Amino acid sequence: MLFDTHCHLDDGSFAGEVRDVVAQARSAGVTRMLTQGTSISSSLDCIALAEEFPEVYAAVAIHPNCLMEEIPRFGDGAVFLEIFSQMAENPRVRAVGETGVDLYWHDTPIEIQKQYLALHFELARRTKLPVVIHCRDAEEPLLETARADFEKNGPVPGVIHSFSGDLTFLRACLDLGFHISYSGSVTFKNKCFDSVRETVCEVPLDRLLVETDSPYLTPMPFRGKIRRNTPEYVQHTARFLAEMRGMSEEEFFAQTTHNALKFLGIPESSPNVQDAQNVI
User: Fold this and answer.
1) CA 152 from centroid of its chain's CA atoms
2) How far is the C-alpha of 62 from the C-alpha of 105, rounded, in Å?
3) pLDDT tens digits for the chain (280 residues)?
4) Rounded-to-integer distance, Cα 167 and Cα 22, Å
5) Reading across the β-sheet that carries 2-7, which strands appear in turn?
6) Phi and psi (nearest 5°) for 247?
7) How far apart are CA 206 and CA 22, in angstroms?
């Protein structure tokens, strides 16, 4: 079994096809998926999907690149916390995500991104949920915000999703207590991903997760050959990582699934496993 800890099943490219996508994932041995909210409406859609499909859980948050569009909908941080705290009361919600910092795009001023990352940390504490963190070309402001929060409030469970940093960034994230999740990008042949691959064997095994970030970041050898990534392709990234770490597929799949269930507070013997088998 495998757990795709980061996908976007509410994405428009999956419209009308989610049932088939989930069924194909289960047939490939992917028995769990965490679909990530990126706005208020996206988060509500993720909850609806999690309520419909027993294999799917939801994360709720505002993506850093969506903040300028979303902030006028609630006005200030207090209302943001109220709205998302209410969402998190749904038992199908298992994480606060996808939040973070992004300097690749220039949709949101960096100070606003940092402010709302801190608010997402506060949301995670209030709801006792882990936080899913996006970081693209923004290691320094991410670490600055996370360290300040850590020093003021103590640790909060979190994961750096689709990890794309080097060993120095990895060690800083591990020092903050974060888990590390790899997507299909770790399989890319580009030389710029060599530094990412150098981190794979340095992550403590009990803090390692695997994801697709679908419909994006299709792993090799399928990159550029299929129209979109889907959760079933997490198996290819998992096999790549298992080989890098010198582990059998079975051992790696079992360990990362155990890690994901523990990280998200889902019992190993969750009845939804059997429920999902009965649905397909």
Assistant:
1) 25
2) 15
3) 999 999 999 999 999 999 999 999 999 999 999 999 999 999 999 999 999 999 999 999 999 999 999 999 999 999 999 999 999 999 999 999 999 999 999 999 999 999 999 999 999 999 999 999 999 999 999 999 999 999 999 999 999 999 999 999 999 999 999 999 999 999 999 999 999 999 999 999 999 999 999 999 999 999 999 999 999 999 999 999 999 999 999 999 999 999 999 999 999 877 554 444 443 3
4) 35
5) 2-7, 30-36, 56-60, 93-102, 131-136, 158-160, 179-182, 208-210
6) -115, 155
7) 26
Q: Which two tokens mark 190? A: 């580009």
CATH H-level, domain 2-279: superfamily? Metal-dependent hydrolases (3.20.20.140)
Residue recorded with tokens 């940093």: 165
Q: How far apart are CA 27 and CA 276, in angstroms?
A: 11
Tracing tokens 């679909």 back to the chain, one arrives at 35
Q: Which two tokens stand for residue 58?
A: 């939801």
Mark out the alpha helices in the chain (DSSP H runs).
Answer: 18-27, 40-52, 67-74, 77-88, 110-127, 139-153, 167-175, 194-197, 234-245, 249-264, 272-279
Q: How far apart are CA 51 and CA 279, in angstroms?
A: 13
Looking at this protein, which amino acid is placed at residue 147? R
